[in-house]
Design brief:
alpha/beta; Alpha-Beta Plaits; 46% helix; 23% strand
């Protein structure tokens, strides 16, 4: 009996021990997760849905500059958010009652300060404008009496009410103020004519820009803040501490995060005044000069018989936004175009180098830039500062000449007729380098690829591309500035990114001259094939079968990724396996897109494919032409840089990629590209192969991915 009892006790003990040892690790992990979770303080945030500011209701993906600012605060304060949606007045009441803990975009008033604590530092500044519909030309800023008894819509509870009433008293204007619970109804009444005008803010720019409304008056401004409930006073110090740390790391953070989601578009500065409209009425047409050899900025399609390029996108915008039609006038020479402008036969010219100094020297008014690009240098051998001593420039490219004068004032220049002549001047030793901007170098990529000994690098200088008018034509200048302020940067970016201007149209003589050897080879091959088929017609079927089989094999070994146009995995692996021990200074970069699966699952595979394509285009645009860029897998890309100068050049390339991605994300706030990157230098791993070096880069890329996820609080 005792033996049986002991046996049962032993069995029970073993069972308990097994359960403890199997369950205990799980419990440890669970405790760790619970501990991590409990380390973050739960904070209820009033999340007001507003385009550009805070978007994404419920479980939908969230974005906007207010949302991003909240995330930065959470990182530094150790907070975890619970989002509460509602109208502005509803959320403000909840904040005062302590039903939520924090809310942003709040203007300070003494009344509000009795119930809530405002942060010590501003979140931003809100400017208030009076908007009227485009067809309400009877209301003007030059005659305030036109506003008498006007019905003006303002959101209830906003500081705009008091500010506008103070403005009316100061200017002796009586208006009927109509108060609204939400902007949707206010905008609808504005469009239907129930309201004569509305007061709106810079925060609403993204939403306002889709309407044909003009801002005619700025009635005031106020700073706005994050604020916390006085029911939870411990949050106040945490909020101020977090904002202080954000600003100490980047004093311009407020401005940068606002521009990231709103770009340069300004609904508040884009409207035409009565004087603008009177001036336009006297103009039968507006003649704009352009050069037909400046793609992707401007050019002429012989097949379409029309202007093409970025200028076409701008003129279409001006017609849609202001009902202004431009008459394009094509010039073969910049200098002929500039002379025509000074003589008054045209009203404006494009493209010009957007430098105030060069404009003053040439007696012109230069506008804000429509776009900008990076200034690239093409040279022979290895790069050093002395490469700019003699610069080959196009004799009819003031963009290139002005860049050379401004950025390399101690250098000499050699005038050439064509870009091909510039490249020949480098080869012959007549020049040490030439300059080209990153948007246009694709037009010459064939020539650059043929001259394999030439290298290209980013100088770090930007090339602003603008319009110019005569100095006495301030009306034309003002019209162009308003057009530039109102055009969406996404339209500009898409025009440059999606259009292929790499193969400009040629006539037959030009094609034969440029590709004479190719033509001779093709003709010889065709003749040989005809003779062969004629002589051996009996075995033509067998040859056709063999040719078909060969083509099938070639297709199986296709080297181009159809989704991106980059070399595919087959090509990448072939290059990697063809190198044994690395003999030249080399860097391998591994880049991997983050959250691609999330994009595919939430937004669809089509959006995921667009993300991959855009990332590929951005990489190829930034990475120097002589470096290899390939798609290594579904969301993996590699860059192989031979003859790289060292760590400084590698870090500079990573910085350029980061800057381009940030610029792209800044105008595509709702569709962000995130990635991880790692690289390895052959100088740090002597005697290794390319494949070994890539493996080291892959390890560092994975470390970067883990670091990024940890910084963003991801598991």
């Amino acid at each position: 009996m005792n033996k049986k009892s002991n046996l049962w006790k032993s069995c029970i003990f073993l069972i308990i021990a097994f359960l403890i040892f199997t369950i205990f690790p799980v419990n440890i992990k669970a405790a760790e997760r619970q501990s991590e979770s409990s380390a973050l303080k739960k904070v209820r945030v009033g999340y007001l849905i507003y385009p550009g500011y805070q978007e994404g209701e419920g479980d939908a993906p969230k974005s906007g500059y207010g949302y991003e600012y909240l995330q930065q605060i959470a990182y530094y304060a150790g907070w975890e958010y619970e989002y509460v949606n509602g109208s502005f007045n509803e959320l403000l009441k909840m904040l005062e009652n302590g039903d939520i803990d924090i809310m942003g975009n709040l203007s300070y008033t003494d009344e509000r300060a009795q119930n809530i604590n405002f942060a010590t530092e501003e979140q931003g500044r809100e400017y208030y404008y009076l908007f009227v519909r485009e067809d309400r030309t009877d209301i003007t800023a030059t005659d305030l009496s036109t506003l008498q008894d006007a019905k003006v819509g303002i959101n209830k509870g906003s500081v705009q009410v008091d500010l506008f009433q103070d403005w009316c008293e100061k200017n002796n204007v009586h208006c009927q103020v109509e108060l609204y619970e939400n902007s949707e109804q206010r905008y609808a009444d504005m469009n239907s004519g129930k309201l004569d005008a509305i007061i709106s803010t810079t925060v609403a720019e993204k939403e306002i820009s889709k309407y044909r409304w003009n801002s005619i008056l700025k009635i005031g401004y106020s700073p706005y803040y994050f604020a916390v409930s006085k029911k939870n006073p411990e949050l106040y110090d945490e909020l101020n501490s977090a904002i202080a740390q954000i600003l100490q790391s980047d004093w311009y953070y407020n401005e940068k995060v606002y521009l990231k989601y709103n770009g340069k578009t300004s609904a508040a500065s884009a409207g035409l005044t009565a004087s603008d409209q009177e001036w336009l009425a006297t103009k039968k047409n507006i003649r704009i000069g352009y050069t037909d050899n400046a793609l992707p900025y401007s050019g002429y399609s012989k097949s379409k018989k029309e202007m093409i390029g970025l200028l076409s996108t701008f003129t279409e915008h001006m017609k849609d936004r202001y009902d202004v039609t431009f008459e394009p006038v094509k010039f073969d020479s910049y200098f002929d175009m500039s002379q025509a402008l000074q003589q008054g036969s045209i009203d404006a010219i494009f493209p010009v180098y957007g430098s105030y100094w060069t404009a003053e020297e040439n007696n012109l008014l230069v506008t804000d830039d429509l776009t900008s690009s990076y200034l690239m240098m093409v040279y022979d051998g290895t790069y050093d500062k002395d490469k700019s001593s003699i610069i080959a420039v196009l004799e009819d490219s003031p963009l290139q000449q002005f860049c050379a004068q401004e950025h390399f004032p101690d250098s000499k220049t050699v005038a050439c007729k064509t870009m091909q002549d510039c490249l020949k001047a480098i080869t012959s030793g007549e020049a040490t380098c030439t300059l080209i901007n990153s948007d246009t170098y694709y037009a010459y990529r064939n020539e650059l690829e043929e001259l394999t000994h030439l290298n290209i690098t980013n100088t770090g200088y930007e090339v602003p591309v603008s319009f110019a008018t005569r100095r006495d034509d301030i009306q034309m200048y003002t019209l162009l500035k308003k057009g530039l302020a109102s055009i969406k940067e996404t339209d500009i970016h898409e025009a440059l990114l999606t259009e292929d201007y790499a193969n400009p149209e040629m006539n037959i003589p030009q094609f034969l001259q440029k590709h004479m050897i190719l033509v001779i080879v093709v003709l010889a091959v065709v003749l040989a094939l005809v003779l062969t088929l004629f002589i051996y017609y009996i075995i033509s079927h067998r040859k056709a079968m063999r040719l078909s089989q060969d083509n099938d094999e070639l297709n199986e070994k296709a080297y181009i990724d159809l989704a991106t146009g980059l070399p595919n995995k087959n090509k990448c692996e072939e290059i990697l396996s063809s190198h044994f021990t690395i003999t030249r200074p080399t860097a391998c970069f591994m880049l991997d897109l983050n959250d691609l699966k999330k994009v595919n699952d939430t937004l669809g595979h089509e959006m995921g494919d667009i993300m991959i394509l855009n990332f590929a285009k951005l990489l190829r645009k930034v990475v120097p032409l002589h470096y290899f860029v390939g798609r290594f897998g579904g969301d993996e890309f590699i860059v192989l840089a031979e003859n790289i100068s060292g760590k400084e050049e590698a870090e500079n390339l990573i910085a350029q990629i980061k800057e381009m991605i940030l610029k792209f994300n800044g105008i595509r706030g709702e569709f962000q590209i995130n990635y991880a990157c790692g690289y390895a230098l052959s100088e740090d791993y002597p005697g290794v192969s390319l494949l070994d070096l890539l493996n080291e880069a892959d390890i560092k890329m994975y470390e970067d991915k883990v670091k990024t996820k940890k910084e963003h609080g991801k598991s």
